[in-house]
């Protein structure tokens, strides 16, 4: 992508973040974003052919990349694959709950407001997460720590579904106990 296009896209995403903080995701319009970026609507649409939904998705993916960078550092400090799974899920739940923009796109009530963005976000989020954990996943499978018959894409989707359910239905007690009892055995090799 040419540098000028990248710079404009970055301006639009930065402006969208400010607008989402000010008006909320559901109420922010392309006109709001264009005005905050100091650009015309036409320029926004030239940079984001998918319009508002594509801008929303790009903001979400940027937030997610930041989270995954922090998570990678934290997971590297975990002493075992099961601990990494448990703490990674706990961190992801806390991240979504703590980031209103992300929560607005990945929770059920978002579907009524930004259905297209949510559908695109889910696939993009899964793909981004799978790409980020692929090296760790492959190493754990080579060492016999993860089941050999599962794929990184399937494992990420499974964990995404677990994370989503934990956001919607927090449950009682320590979620780590639930994760260790039910989720870790579904992914790891048994002794």
TrEMBL record:
Domain HTH tetR-type residue range list: 6-66
Keywords, ordered alphabetically: DNA-binding
DNA-binding stretch(es), residue numbering of this chain: 29-48
Endpoints of the signal sequence: none
Source organism, top-level taxon: Bacteria
Name listed for the protein in its UniProt record: TetR/AcrR family transcriptional regulator
Species name: Actinoallomurus liliacearum
